[in-house]
Amino acid sequence: MFGLGGSGLVTAHALKLGGANVVCFDDDAGRVDRAAGEGLQAQDLRTLDWSGVAALVLAPGVPLTHPVPHWSVDLARDAGVEIIGDVELFCRERRKLCPAAPLIAITGTNGKSTTTALTAHLLRETGYDVQVGGNIGTPVLELEPPQPGRHYVVECSSYQIDLAPTLDPTVGIHMNLSPDHLDRHGTMENYAAIKERLVAAAKVAIVGVDDRLSSDIADRLELARKPVCRIAGERELTNGLYARHGRLIEAHDGSQVEVARLGGIDSLRGDHNGQNAAAAFATLRALEIPAAKIAAALKNLPGPAAPHGGGGQARTGAVHQRFQGDQRGCRGTGARQLRPDLLDRRRACEGRRHFLAGRIFPEDRQDVPGRGSGGGFRQDTGRPGAVQDQRNPAASGQGCGLRSRGGRGAGDCDPAVSRLCQLRSIPELRIAGRCFCRRGACLA
């Protein structure tokens, strides 16, 4: 395992609990010392005998190809060792434990966090057991074990997709494309191709077609005879699902039927949120959930929550603002760097088992003594409360309560960072709306 940040440590612990023999390392000596202090075997991978290595598990923040491959990647390739990430481990274990557990994987340059949380909310409102995580909030290997009827809603970054060669969602959602992370993918064509892999491998693909590159992806999938549902927030469609004037319209061969109304839902105003709502609605339809049930769940979408201490009762004018933000136009250019204390959601593991049961590699590793067969590695429910209205901290009475990486105080974050706060009464969106800042750039 290389890369011992928050999600990397989670992965290393999950592998160890599942019975794998894990050797881990990081270029940061402090992280290596921390891992060793937590009972992990830390060793410089340059001194390792790679002939006995089954896989290099790479943290998503470590360069795989650009600007140059990390030295650990070169070592693995020279030894003929596969290179994978945490999402790939999850997919393999899901196929072993419960392949019938639906996996909804969501990607795109913008809007994926909102769509992930909205999809999870609608599934819960319609009565389903839902686990949500990945690139949003909880690392994917900290989710509850796969079991029949349990739905997984997983946000996937391009880094995670690049490290998940057998990612096979039940429903794959691609929102949109615009230049981003090109320092890690080299060209826009490479970046688009990685995003396309998620929907190309899905049983049902849902593709936003408001931009040309994404529309081309939908065309290629159709030519390959893949089931595709087009979605849009900025244009009418003759086939697919689109938002128009506060309504969701389902179109088939030119005929149009209104399936839901978005008017009056402050949290979903704007074309970008129309596309987000269309994606979530189309996902539930792909899972054969009746349109009427989905529309009713949309009506129950909570509005912006009250500030801390408000008990959910009062909503000030400053807090009850339109959810006009999103990720468009405020992308960071560097690798995603989240605060370790927010990503570090590992549990005290003594006496518990993780659902990774040693079956993560092509062979079953039956020779691992004392290996569990799955079961309850329970999720920590001690999440911090909702964040505040960061676009107008003075009006809500408090700032965001988190200190940015650049050293600014609580509540003085860049306004772009707070765009998800308007839906923070949904637990997943409280996570998505937290202040992940780096030099004032919005990285959520």
Mean pLDDT: 74
Radius of gyration: 21 Å
Q: Please work out how many helical segments DSSP would assign.
A: 14
Tertiary shape: elongated
Order of helices and strands: HEHEEHEHEHEEHEHHEHEEEEHHHHHEE
Stretches where pLDDT falls below 50 for ≥5 residues? 304-353, 357-444
Q: Major sheet, described briefly?
A: 9 strands, mixed
Share in helix: 25-40%
Order of strands in the sheet with the most strands? 6-7-5-8-9-10-11-12-13
Strand content: 5-15%
Structural class: alpha/beta
The end-to-end distance, rounded to whole angstroms, is 25 Å
The total strand number stands at 15
Write the layout of secondary structure elements.
Layout: H1 6-17, E1 23-24, H2 29-37, E2 41-42, E3 55-57, H3 71-78, E4 82-84, H4 86-97, E5 103-107, H5 112-125, E6 129-134, E7 150-155, H6 158-162, E8 171-174, H7 182-185, H8 188-200, E9 204-208, H9 212-223, E10 228-232, E11 240-244, E12 247-252, E13 255-261, H10 271-286, H11 291-299, H12 340-343, H13 393-396, H14 427-432, E14 437-438, E15 441-442
Parallel strand pairs: 1-2, 3-4, 5-7, 5-8, 6-7, 8-9, 9-10, 10-11
Antiparallel strand pairs: 11-12, 12-13, 14-15
Helix pairs in contact: 5-10, 8-9
Could you give a quick summary of the protein structure above?
Helices cover 29% and strands 14% of the residues. The protein is built from 14 helices and 15 strands.
